[in-house]
Design a protein that fits this description.
single chain, 61 residues, mainly alpha, flat
């Protein structure tokens, strides 16, 4: 459970730094996401989750 909380904290730190460093880029990206079909967003989310799972599995063994 501790690892999960730490992982969520790290995600928030990384996203916060990215938003703070590149606010205009994120605004443009969000506008592009609005026009993206649901199926593409779903596939991208599943791909990202799968890659994350593989990374965790490789690191944590």
């Amino acid at each position: 459970m501790t690892d999960l909380v730490v992982a969520i904290g790290l995600v928030l730190v990384i996203e916060g730094v990215a938003y703070a460093a590149f606010p205009q880029a994120f605004r443009r990206m969000l506008k592009m996401v609005e026009g993206t079909p649901d199926a593409s967003l779903r596939m991208g989310g599943l791909l990202a989750a799968s890659i994350g799972l593989v990374i965790v599995w490789l690191v944590r063994g």
